[in-house]
Queue: 4 jobs
Job 1
Amino acid sequence: MQYPIHDENLFVQKISESKKTIYDPVEIGDPNLWIPIDILENLLQKGLMGLSLKDLPLRTRSKVLKQAVCEALGYPIPDSFKKTQPRFPGQSFDTYVQKSNNLQIWNEEISPSRRYVIIHLTEDDIIDKIKVITGESLASLDRTGTLTQKYQARIVLSDKQFELISPYDTGNVQEIIGDNTDFSQTLHLSPNKPPIAECLLPILEVFNRLKILVGKEFVDIGRDQERNRGAILHQFVCESLGFSEYHDGGQFPDILNQLVEVKLQMSPTIDLGLVLPSSVEPLDIPRLKNKAVRHCDVRYAIFYAVLDGTKVTLTHLFLTTGEDFFNRFTQFAGKVKNTKLQIPLPRDFFI
């Protein structure tokens, strides 16, 4: 079984040996030079934690930070840094340094495929926390309705409680899965780790494991009810797919290890974030059998539910590939547009 490379030091070594600069493009999923998001976060934590920016002028502070980033990842430090978008195009990420949990992005829209390195400072201007997420995941944190560019679609319910919209995975995923028949190893994997070709469940198997959740009820409690409902459903889905543990890494798709995005609907409007399900753009994960996994390869598990007093009941399940998504659901014309780009980060964001 081939597991994705997770040797942090090997990535730094390969980048250093390549002689590439932070401005030289790297193909997403390149097994030697594209740093997966979890490893990127770990490398930056090791390289930046404890760095003091105290009393530095803004330009000097920015330069010192960029130099430290280059050094942490194995890139040569340039004589001067270019004004590019993103600032580190070779690994497609921007850095944001702040003391508060109110993230502000100026003069540009959030890019779904870009990585956002969010660096927290202590009151003494010392780096103490770092979090790296994709633009797609960042968009999901917006609870204020202030974010630009959100795609939406509409559900029209039928008399069917279960709908397997895509009887087969995309051709890309079928080639990755191959002749997989033994899925017992799925139990020993973490749901928020990158997928492994030999352990990917076919979409029909995903459907058979999830449809038993229709009719399930749970109590609707807590202040942040929408978030709590989603977390409860996410846990149910992890259990039904066969995972022995539950983790929510806040990534896209929700259950990365099985390329499953989970949505709980209590109204006909589906919020799709910054990327259309049918997009052929690659996901920020290692290649599988030398194939890039695309947004349209993701399996969307959409549960419809009703609220009766304080109890939520799951009434319908729809399962589709991103590729077939709009064969069943109607896309709203255009995007929902607003103007401000200001996102309050959750209190537990850096935990």
Note: Residues 8-148+340-344 form one domain.
Job 2
Amino acid sequence: MTVGGVKRGIGAIARLLLCASATVGAQGMRAEPTPCPDGIPSTTQCALGKDSAGAFYWIAIPAPWNKQLVVHAHGGPDLGAPDAKGSADDLTRWNIWTRMGFAVVASTYHQGGVAVRSAAEDVERSRQWFIAQFGMPQRTILHGQSWGAGVAARTAELFGARDAQGHVPYDAVLLTSGVLGGASLSYDFRMDLRVVYQAVCGDHPRADEPPYPLWQGLPVGAKLTRAQLADRVDSCTGVRKPAAARSPEQTQRLGTILAAVKVPERTLIAHLNWGTWHFQDIVTKRTNGVNPFTTAGVTYAGGAALNEKIARYASDSVAVATLAADADPTGRIPVPVLTMHAIDDPTAFVELESTFRRTMERAGRSTALVQLFTQDSEHSYLSDAQYVTAMQALLTWIERGVVPTPQQVAASCPTVARLYAPDSGCRFLPEYQPASLASRVPARVKRGVPSPLNQ
């Protein structure tokens, strides 16, 4: 495209955004052309709005635009009120989509906390807003990252049916580094971590603090901060120190915890945070103060001495069902689904992918799923080259009807990615198959309700 053509394209997009601002404002929503976040190509026009439910959303439209849209579901979840900065950061981190020519819309979600269906509704509303203002894209890809992958899966299940005109809202779904076991299974290991950590360290809560059942996460009104919890964990285990600087007692305690609950050392504190404040959100705001977690009947590596000290809790069946109804994928996604996951993901274990495959199989949708794995040890971002290749494989799938194989994707990565990310690396492992989640997280029965996904 010529320089003049680029300028005309930018001008046209700017006029669309100004028109969108006026139209949406008339509907009780606000959207204004806004400088793009850092890292977005300079030819991109951005808008920031706030929808009728209170969610902020960012839109980025590059010039030239390939007439295809990525609807982004972000991870987390954040526990506070919605903040426009969150989606701005997502646009920056995922600027590969605008660099490829996609428009992007990203919602903050209108409420914080572990509320998957609510977030899915926000995601779908952001797509509808984009279409109302800019028309129907040629293709719409739903992208979910981390916890947002679970949100995206639920979005596709709840809102993915064809409309009266025969249009599918989403042509395909891309799930990266996904927390895909649903609330029924994805959080069990953090319950394990809470009881094992307390059995070993005894300082969360301390003996001089009011006791509470650990499944509560933290009592309402408790003043404990994340920095204070990190100090406690470090004092007990030395986890923030080099191994050589730890005392023998710290080394032993840390080893006991990590052997019993298979979390990486580098994310021990983060998982304890989630098992504290996210559990507090779940119990106080989602399950009406009732326990959805169990440690009953679970045997932890570490021998009889450790297991005798473990706090045993039985889950409430209504709380389990409430959480599952909100957050558990059903697998009934009516369009192609491609997942990508690092095999050493320290936050969302790769074994969750085996659970998601069984979910899709039970829904009769196994042929609509392709899973990719990479030789990475990160969670938040893998490499531009791998995302480009995954997206191109997904587009080819929906346009030609040919299901890609992991081998084909891996072989195409160096060529496909050259235009956008020649130096970022292709690390696909086409032969890799994840073990079952039960190989890492002990299976359990919750108030008489078995968890077949974990078997």
Note: Residues 1-28, 448-455 have pLDDT under 50 and may be disordered.
Job 3
Amino acid sequence: MKTNSKSTLRLFRIFIYVFLVLLVIVTVIPIWLVLVNATRSTVEIQQGLSALPSSHTLDNYGILRGRGLNLFRGFSNSLFVAACSTVLAVYFSLLTAYGIVVYNFKGKRFFTSFIILLVLIPVQLSIIGFYQFMSRLGLTDNFASLILPAIASAGAVFFGKQYFESIVVRDLIDAGRVDGASEFGIFHRIMMPIAVPGAVTLGIFAFVASWNNFFNAFILISSIEKYTLPMLVQLMRGDVYRTEYGAIYLGLAVTIVPIIIIYVIFSRYIINGISMGAVKE
């Protein structure tokens, strides 16, 4: 019986490993093809798939420049918007989540349920009202319309709440109060250092979401010098006989490379942050 159990367990592990390897291959192949096609010409791309890079990267970049699309400007615009949005989303979301977890106040349950409801509502349903609101504030065609909404990120608050519920040690909070620390001081000096894995994880998610944000930017930004990378890539689409696929893939490659680099650097924080936030004592 023990031999059969060990054999079954061994087969199950082999099956899991094979499945994970296949999953990695399915995930990596599309990204690799985008990077490869960024180095190929439109004619080569139309001839079929290739797993080996070509030598037309500079030609594709020249096509982008010839059409007035400045990748470096788009990259800097995306980086500025994503960085500012990430900082605001992480700080204010964790601050809000900390208040929900630590303090008891009237309407706390309703407020928590309302946050969950906001997470479930698609952005497309509220874009008309949001655009009118930004227009009345005079923030259309302004990076502020893409950055400031990060302060009220319902998804980030929900993640922060789940995370703080697993790491908050009320004895430390009480000790800080006894030592005369203010409530903000306790949050900044005690809780934030403890919540670094969760903050980094939340920051990565917020950065990627802002970096890939095309819908809101397309609605709110009209000046081409303020276009982000996804918007610049969208401009390359045209008639099927005039579309430069190599240049489009180059723009897509420039868009995804920073995300890959960030994931490689901070992947261990993502695993720690999610695993710790999923366990409650």
Note: The chain has 14 helices and no strands.
Job 4
Amino acid sequence: MLKDITLGQYFPGNSPLHRADPRMKLILTLVEITAVFLCKNMYSFILLIAFTAALVIMSRIPPRMVFRGLKPIIFIIAFTAIINIFWTKGDNLLFEFGFIKVYFEGVMFAVFMIIRIVCLLAGTSVVLTYTTSPIAITDGLEQLLAPLKKIKLPVHEFSMMMTIALRFIPTLIEETDRIMSAQKARGADFTSGSLIDRAKALVPVLIPLFVSAFRRADELAVAMECRCYRGGDGRTRMNVLRYSALDFVLLAVFALFCAAVLLINRFAPGFSL
């Protein structure tokens, strides 16, 4: 399961999304999130699925890699679906067993929520983290938040922390997998027993993981000090960010998608949230 976590990983490539400016991709991510939560009926959700699939194809990232990244949230998706099925009331009763009642509205709500979660994670990951290096994300985020420097907010430090966190997610996942393999070789069992027993079995994993994380943080701090890092004041960049025609084309496409969702919600018939 740990090897299936692709959050924070960057897949190099030369697709239109890879070539887009990181500042624009941050803006596109916000537009994508807004559009996902604006979807209200089945036609807008169908459009959302098609748009997310188009993003995956445009990124040229293998779909299996995108789906692998969804495996860790299967429990959250299943839990959300169950809550919506059994807690949502309606007028069309489909199934009744004692106090358990399942309505058509509850099933549709569950389907819509599953689509929303999957498309939200897949779409934003493809637009941002999968196609943008951590350094590019740092530069883009810092320049977008640059106006906040006038009110003395530490924009550079905040961007640096975000990037370091993204950068070390795959490293910590790999370290966790290595520690678990070592503990299994010593006879540890992480798959059998009750939920409490499994939680207790993770203690020998968490302690060395925290020690390793603090050691890596200390080594990183020493390395930055040895390179005379003193924050963002007066620092220059090797690659200067510039918007291109591709960025504005992508912005227009995402804006049209958001407008299409609003029009479908307003004029297209069908079951809606």
Note: The first strand starts at residue 93 and ends at 97.
